[in-house]
């Protein structure tokens, strides 16, 4: 079966599985009383979301993991030798960092506070280091692709450092973005769709299939997460999405396109850094509130308008990233 058709089948399967199990999963979260604790320093209108079921990210993590195992079992031995190297790092990041997020969500629901940031960082670094070393050794990576230019040799050690930074930064970037109904999920759809095409530019067909599974599962999640959300992804999903997206970028070699396809996550992170830095240095704030989506909400944009406009930017950025990948010489 051509991998393009398989990717389409996996995308549709992920979407349908998410739709089928979404409502029962939400009911389970409600019975277990796994509800979000909304931070009091956020916009006052967000207080209405107090208690909404969280850990919704487990839905798309489980769907993608099940489909990954299903494809692995169906493939003949020869194709598994290609399938596993192209997808083991993204699926490992998805499950590994998703587990960290699930523990954080559970602690938050149970005790009213989450895992300390530095403790999360340790686990993210461990996952990032494992991912970087595997990619470096298996694909014999010595460089990265510069858009429109070609490969730039940076050496294995520098690649590992870059990989660590990408995974930790993007994981936390998506987590910062996850503050409005449908915002992180929708922008992530466009980012993974972009990297599906970027993987195609590298002829990494099985990574295309993996990205397709992510897109389908995230779309199913959005079915229940768009305003007004029936549940939210929590750290379970947000931390995992960012790490997985970075893992896909590192596997393709186009990690420099990660800030392009993930421009919303970068903007949200930069807004926090600028806000904190400005307040500490000058005693003044740049934005009404950070992350960036809160600023637009506080200047009067309705939540739905902020979300959809960020989606539009993410869609445009994803298209730009995919075109740049195809226009870059890879030989």
Task: Report on the architecture of this protein.
It is a single chain. With 331 residues, this protein is mostly helical. It has one domain (3-326). The chain contains twelve helices and two strands, in the order ααααββαααααααα. It has helices at residues 3-31, 57-74, 77-111, 117-138, 156-177, 183-201, 205-225, 234-252, 258-261, 263-282, 292-298, 303-326; strands spanning 143-146, 150-153. A two-stranded antiparallel ribbon has the order 1-2. The longest helix is centred in the N-terminal third of the chain and has 35 residues, at 77-111. It is globular, with a radius of gyration of 19 Å. The two termini are 27 Å apart. The mean pLDDT is 92.
A few lines on this structure:
This protein is mostly helical and 331 residues long.
Tags for this model:
331 residues; mainly alpha; 12 helices; 2 strands; globular
How many domains?
1
In N-to-C order, the SSE pattern is HHHHEEHHHHHHHH
Share in β-strands? under 5%
Q: Which bin fits the share of residues in helices?
A: over 70%
How many whole angstroms does the radius of gyration measure? 19 Å
Task: Please state how the strands of the largest beta sheet are arranged side by side.
Answer: 1-2
Give the biggest sheet. 2 strands, antiparallel
Helix/sheet category:
mainly alpha
What would the principal axes of the Cα set say about the shape?
Answer: globular
Number of strands: 2
Low-pLDDT residue spans: none
How many individual helices?
12
State the distance separating the first and last CA atoms. Answer: 27 Å
Mean pLDDT: 92
């Amino acid at each position: 079966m051509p991998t393009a058709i398989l990717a389409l089948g996996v995308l549709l399967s992920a979407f349908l599985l998410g739709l089928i199990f979404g409502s029962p999963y939400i009911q389970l979260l409600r019975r277990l009383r796994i509800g979000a604790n909304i931070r009091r320093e956020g916009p006052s209108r967000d207080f209405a979301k107090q208690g909404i079921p969280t850990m919704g990210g487990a839905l798309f993590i489980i769907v993608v993991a099940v489909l990954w195992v299903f494809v692995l079992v169906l493939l003949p031995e020869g194709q598994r030798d290609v399938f596993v190297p192209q997808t083991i790092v993204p699926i490992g990041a998805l499950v590994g960092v998703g587990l960290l997020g699930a523990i954080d969500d559970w602690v938050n629901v149970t005790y009213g506070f989450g895992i300390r940031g530095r403790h999360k960082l340790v686990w993210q670094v461990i996952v990032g280091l494992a991912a970087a070393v595997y990619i470096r050794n298996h694909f014999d990576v010595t460089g990265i692709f510069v858009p429109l230019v070609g490969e730039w040799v940076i050496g294995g050690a520098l690649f590992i450092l870059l990989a660590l930074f990408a995974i930790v930064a993007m994981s936390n970037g998506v987590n910062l973005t996850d503050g409005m109904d449908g915002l992180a999920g929708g922008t992530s759809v466009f980012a993974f769709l972009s990297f599906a095409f970027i993987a195609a530019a590298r002829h990494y067909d099985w990574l295309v299939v993996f990205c397709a599974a992510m897109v389908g599962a995230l779309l199913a999640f959005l079915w229940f997460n768009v305003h007004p959300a029936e549940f939210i992804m929590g750290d379970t999903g947000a931390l995992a999405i960012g790490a997985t997206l970075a893992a896909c970028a590192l596997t393709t070699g186009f990690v420099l396109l990660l800030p392009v396809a993930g421009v919303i996550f970068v903007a949200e992170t930069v807004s926090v850094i600028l806000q904190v830095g400005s307040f500490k240095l000058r005693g003044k704030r740049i934005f009404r509130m950070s992350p960036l989506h809160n600023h637009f909400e506080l200047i009067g944009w309705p939540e739905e308008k902020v979300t959809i406009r960020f989606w539009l930017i993410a869609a445009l950025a994803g298209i730009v990233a995919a075109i740049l990948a195809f226009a870059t010489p890879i030989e």
